Amino acid sequence: MKAVGLTRYLPIDDPQSLVDVDIATPVPEGRDLLVKVAAISVNPVDAKVRAPKDKVEPATRVLGWDAAGTVAAVGPDVTLFKVGDPVFYAGSITRPGANSEFHLVDERIVGHKPALLDFAQAAALPLTAITAWEALFDRLGVSPQGEHAGRSVLVIGGAGGVGSIGIQLAKTLAGLTVIATASRPESAAWCRDLGADHTIDHRGDMPAQLRKLGFAEVDYILCFNDTDRHFAAMATVIAPQGKICSIVENSGPLAVGDLKSKSATFVWEFMFTRSMFGTPDMIEQYLLLNEVARLVDAGRLRTTLGENLGRIDAANLRRAHAMLESGRTIGKLVLEGF
User: Fold this and answer.
1) Would you give the DSSP letter of residue 172?
2) Beta partners for residue 36, in sequence order
3) Three-class DSSP category at 309
4) In angstroms, how far apart are the furthest CA atoms of the chain?
5) Structure confidence by residue, pLDDT tens digits, 100-154
6) What pTM, to 2 d.p., does this model score?
């Protein structure tokens, strides 16, 4: 089968950083689905995993953790899907990725594709929807039924993939007052179009900008952009007994002691945790994705596809990685078909 992979970890402008290859089609076992991949999307995790380092893989490594396609075969223990089902999912970072014609994935982290979306539109959603949902509802404890409506949330990095769905979940389901950060007029407009009540620039003085809007403090913070850079501002603006969740790993020590006097919570979200550790509640991601699909088909959530870069091949994936590394993408980058 066709795939895009690597054996060396190189700068993205090197033609060998991602290459077209032919590899064996895998066979499903246990609870695995074999998915015929129709579309994929690219996330910052792809670029981080591919980033230059002194390592050589003994065999081609395939990346990619967002896909939509059709179930082509099932393992003997599968109960949730059948051959022919359209699906969308993010996969496991501990297994070969989805940048291939066929891909194996555990059924417990797969959802039925939203009926109203095509495969490209659906591929934009899984990783970011799981991340934002778990961050907001599981880690911060916000009610998706609107029990905390009217409270405030600051979404740092609102125009990125996770921010784009996070704004929708916070506004549409939770009923929060959403302040999103964006550094350019076009990204600020994107955030407002998705439902943000206000936008500020995370390159500037965020506490001052929030005060100007009338927010001396916020109840919740979702950090989807540079935890190290924004931690001091987050500690300043979080409300007493407020909660902060970040998805971006820190590169240096964080001054968590600054949160003590406020009894504020700081928590991480990593959407691969369940599949990486095989947690007993892995099936929660199956349920989560099916709920996202239901909300999309009900017109309450929409795809976050920003740009379709064309077919799935090494050249287009290198282009997508380069765009992500620029830090200037809006929404999700998607590739479709081999």
Assistant:
1) I
2) 70, 102
3) coil
4) 60
5) 999 999 999 999 999 999 999 999 999 999 999 999 999 999 999 999 999 999 9
6) 0.96
Identity (one letter) of the amino acid at 140? L
Distance CA 219, CA 167 (A): 15
Region of 141 (left: φ > 0; alpha: ψ -120 to 50; beta: rest) is left
CATH number for 2-125+273-336 (one of 3.90.180.10, 2.40.50.140, 3.30.450.20, 3.40.50.300): it is: 3.90.180.10
- Total residues belonging to the chain: 338
SS3 159: coil
The span from the CA of 37 to the CA of 329, in Å, is 24
Residue range 5-27: mean pLDDT, rounded: 97
Alpha helices in the chain (DSSP H): 44-50, 119-123, 126-133, 161-168, 185-194, 206-213, 227-237, 273-277, 284-297, 314-326
Q: Which residue from 176, 178, 133 is spatially nearest to 151, judged by alpha carbons?
A: 176
The three-state (H, E, C) secondary structure of 53-95, written as one string: EEEEEEEEEECCCCEEEEEEEECCCCCCCCCCCEEEECCCCCC
C-alpha dihedral sign at 46, 292, 195, 211: negative
CATH, domain 129-268, list 3.30.565.10, 3.40.50.720, 3.30.360.10, 3.40.50.360: 3.40.50.720
In the block, residue with structure tokens 């999309």: 296
**335, 312 contact by CB (below 8 A):** yes
- CA proximity to 41, closest of 307, 322, 314, 326: 307
Burial status of residue 216 (CB atoms within 10 A of its CB: 0-12, 13-18, 19 or more): exposed
